[in-house]
Amino acid sequence: MTRTTIDFGIDLGTTNSAIARLNGVDTEIIKNNDNADTTPSAVMIDRRDRLYVGDIARKRSEQDVANTCVEFKLRMGTTGQDKLFEASGRTLSPEEMSAEVLKSLRRDVAQRTGEDISAAVITVPAAFDLSACDATRRAAALAGLTHAPLLQEPTAAALAYGFQSAADNVFWLVYDLGGGTFDAAVINVRDGEFTVVNHRGDNFLGGKLIDWAIVEELLIPAVAREHGLTDLGRGRPRWLGAVNKLKLAAEAAKIRLSQADSVTVFDELRDAEGRTYEIDVELTRADVERLAEPFIVRSINLCRRALAESGLGPGDIEKVLLVGGPTLSPYLRERLADPAAGLGIALDHSQDPITAVARGAAIFAGTQRLADAAAPAAPPAAGRYAVELEYRPVGPDTEPFVGGRVTGGPTAGLSIEFVNPEAKPVWRSGRIELSPDGAFVTTLWAERGRANTFRIELTDATGAARPVTPDELTYTVGVVDTQPPLTHSIGVGLDGNEVEWLIKRGTPLPARRRILLRTTVGISRGQGEGMIRIPVLEGEYDRADRNRRIGRLEVSPGQVRRDVPEGSEVDLTIVIDESRLVVARAYVPILDEEFEHAINLRTETVPEHAELVREAEAEKRRLAAARRLATELDDPPALQVLARIDAERIVEDVAAMVEAARVDTDAAVTCGKRLLDLKAAIDEVEDALEWPMLVQEAREVVPAAREIVTQRGRPQHRQLLAAAENAIQEAITAHDAVLLRQRVNELRTLVIQVLDETGDLQYLAFDELQVLQPEMRDPNEAAQLVATGRRAAETGDVATLRHVNEQLRGMLPSPPPPPDPFSTVRRGR
Fold it and tell me: What keywords tag this UniProt record (predicted)?
């Protein structure tokens, strides 16, 4: 059999991977050498430089951390994440290890089916950033998969559940909780096609986090108490292997607790010095459910957000499609079904959640024509004809269009006919006479529930058959995917921590956007100085540093023929295809040259532990200040965000990750992501508090201003005061923050004018400049000026005081803020 479509789909998972094949309307999981449906995503290299993939590597990782690696999917596209296998001295990057898993799956196919495949659809989390998608493509190439379209995991899951569904005009919610990632996708099925309406996800939310919580909050404390160990912890080098063994034991226990109320973890730990410690710890389902709760809350919040952004509620969703091993947990299913604490939507678990993604990938693969099948056919042998076909291998129509062109010789008098011999009765298209150039178009008739193979018959004017290649095509009626959406907005970072978003999330792919930028530094070719550097960001936040930097476009002095002055134009174009692979082009008009593929799709390196400690402490202080203010103002929106921070245990997550990041690079990367979550959440609190704080400020400023203007201003000042008070009230009524801030500032300006006319402003300015005396360049001269100012203030010499203030301002390293016109009132002057 010669394949015309890819047909094979791969779920390249954090914990386990699988490969499936489409056979008609059914999918088949290709079992591995251990006769298992899934292969652990684990790699080991021994001292003889022999490389192992799968179960043997995963089991070995319990006692040989130095020569094994697991869960490397989460490091894809991140620099500084190479793994050194100490016994062999070899180093592999995350994509190289992923390539070894893909090679193993290819070998399974060859062993089970005899096919040496070079094409397969590979799934990625919808929340994967562009650099991780690009790394997945590189892994496929390293594994010998020359044609490997990428497919989002929620889309694959929806295909697995709905390929032969008769449902129409319904919404589904994909709940995909894997080993290391989470995706929530709202799907609309209509007219035999489905569209991803909206998506929310988290690359660092999965079953492994529950495993670590079991280790850190249940197993480690129990073992430490039993043996009097004070330093047993995830971030301690002495216990690296032992803690890894506890992690695998926690995962196994969690799975067993899906069917039992309690289990016993019985094993033996060994520290770096070879001392052994027996462990015998009972875990209960209730304990694990308590630890899983914050992670389930995070996932439910993402689902609710995806629904709300789509303008939908639980009542609009027909069912939730469960995907991923953790969804086998009875507690998780109960929580999701709960109308109050969960989603309150019917759950569909008709598919195996562990293999659903691989099966859906295979279904999608059946819609993708192989590159050589779609390419123009080679000239046929003498006496034979070739037909170039244009059609969709899978589609919702029972009467699909097919067109093409017959080549290889004279086509005058030739006719083509399509025959479905398995139909009852046999269906024939009738003879279609070819146009003078051999072209034709017709419709077929296909049955649901099976693959329809049509025989292609070419005949001459006498009805005699002529040989033709290919001599058949296959079409299947099934629900298909429309254009996939972009799951995160793509933009560029600008000066001032700003973002220019180029392609918004939800945009159907492929997509293209062009923008004109200007350089903020010049490039000197002769001196080798300067560089055009444009950070490419992925996220949703208006502050550039709150988003992920997935790469940057760079043009260095060595790439230009002449100098590029500051302020030069750069015409930037970004193109993203259906697999979320990006191409960037920068045209520099002054050079009349285009720089293509200059984008370096890599995320930042692993953050340093000391940096994580500093940032975590800073954010804890910022959160405490925001919490105090929210409580003081009793602001419901701010308090709601704070409640979400507490329910999702973001602060506790960060604290645990910071400790683990001492020796665990995975924890460092996850910690960086959770810190970003914390920063963004605190930003939400501060943004929510902006309006009540502004209103409070206005209500404090107005009476203070009224007192000053009434006592010291002239009649025209009092008229301006009345107008300003009315304008402030109007801005409050309109709930317009920008306008209210402007009106308050106008009132401040009026008060400053009054105080300046009376001379009081100079006393106020002198009081504030005295406080800044330690920061002034010449302490002795500053002290003399302050003494002079005090004498002038005591004698009422405003002119001298004004001169002293000007001198003191000139001695500061940077201009001081303007004086607060209301501080005189607070100090009782």
Answer: ATP-binding, Chaperone, Nucleotide-binding, Phosphoprotein, Stress response
